[in-house]
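re: that chain from earlier
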Amino acid sequence: MLLIINLNNLNMKFIHKWNTFFEYFFYKIAKLNIKFTKPDKTIASVSGVQFLIILNIFIFFYSLLSPHTSRGLNYIEIIFIVALLFLIIYINISKYEGRYEEFDNRWRNESAKRKVIGYIIVILLIIFSFGLFFINGWIFGKFKKY
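^ sequence. v structure.
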């Protein structure tokens, strides 16, 4: 019983850190876009990165469980992927809309070093979310060999 309570507490801490990470990601992207658009427009960026990460995890396990399948996606899988995208967008709209000022108050007084590290992390996360497609292709040998 004590082990279950400790694992549940550990799970909650992990979820909190994951949420804080994407809140910081939203804030940094919104900070870059504030001059051109409203901060809430960056919800699409956060949703896109989260969708790419989840899609790559799905592709990894799908390729792991059926390594010799070379067919394309069927209609049910396409509908599932599109529904997943809209679900992520809906969750992020309800989570981030109108909260830019809250995040700005939280991270406004960062040191210059912390700001640079934050932007590096944001750029690496974007590169990593796209790069997972190539990592999956390399792991499962999906690239043509000449």
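The longest helix spans residues 2-33.
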